[in-house]
From TrEMBL:
CDD domains: HTH_BmrR. Keywords: Coiled coil, DNA-binding. This is MerR family transcriptional regulator. Gene3D superfamilies: 1.10.1660.10, Regulatory factor, effector binding domain. Residues 1-71 form the HTH merR-type domain. Residues 79-106 form a coiled coil. It comes from Paenibacillus soyae. GO terms for molecular function: DNA binding; DNA-binding transcription factor activity.
Amino acid sequence: MFKIGAFAKLSGMTIKTLRHYDELGLLKPAHVEKDSGYRYYTADQLLTIRRIEGFKEQGLTLEMMRPLLTGAVSPSEAVSTLLKKREELESQIRMAQQQLEEVDERLVRVVRHAATAEDGKISLRSVEPVLVASIRENTPKGKLCLLLDELKRYVRSHGEDPEREMTIVWHRKADCDEEPSDIEVAMPISKEIPDSRSVSIYQMPGVKAAVIYTHRCDPYKNNCKAAEVLRSWAANEGYRPLETVPVREVYLTSDKDIYGQLRMAETIMPIERIRKKASGST
């Protein structure tokens, strides 16, 4: 017989593992000295070790192994155990395949945004009208994420994609986060869906002329300087903001596609020409 240390070396197991197998009833020592508590194993118990290793290769848990190691198992019982494990593995494979598809979709979107959305770019263009689901409230900016989450859950419940571009319209922006702002959150939808007490479905108007700043920012922080950048640009280029039309922030990156703290966004400021650009200016 072999002391536990020698048997551990012979079998390739650790002493801790052999003690754990003993506690679970998978592999009891052949003999335990009453006075010292020393565990002893026999050479033929190596077969049990190899069987455990084989069951592990099949992905069986220690609990599933116990009856296979210690009981009189019929072929039908063995088949039942293996079929159960097979179903479990098939489920894991399906889940892994779904995760792989999700990763592939994220890769496509991240690469596309990196290629098309130039950080720090200012451009002039019109904005087309779009059918949206919208929530508008007077609430502190700190609750913005709650409005967005409510809107996402609502559009999802009506079969719409909750990961599309989000738009935040600042009808009136408070000076600090704690004071209520007149905030509207909106998401484009593919078709008319029912509205509710809090969610409105309507055609968000387009903008004939807007200056747009593409940048990375955190929509829940109060330190984004995009509006200041656009006002400065407009003043230098002979434009002024249309005070009657609110500024919009469109978040091009969905929640699931954010890697880091910032997401790609467009700040859209409606403008009108007040003078021609001075010659020689840049």
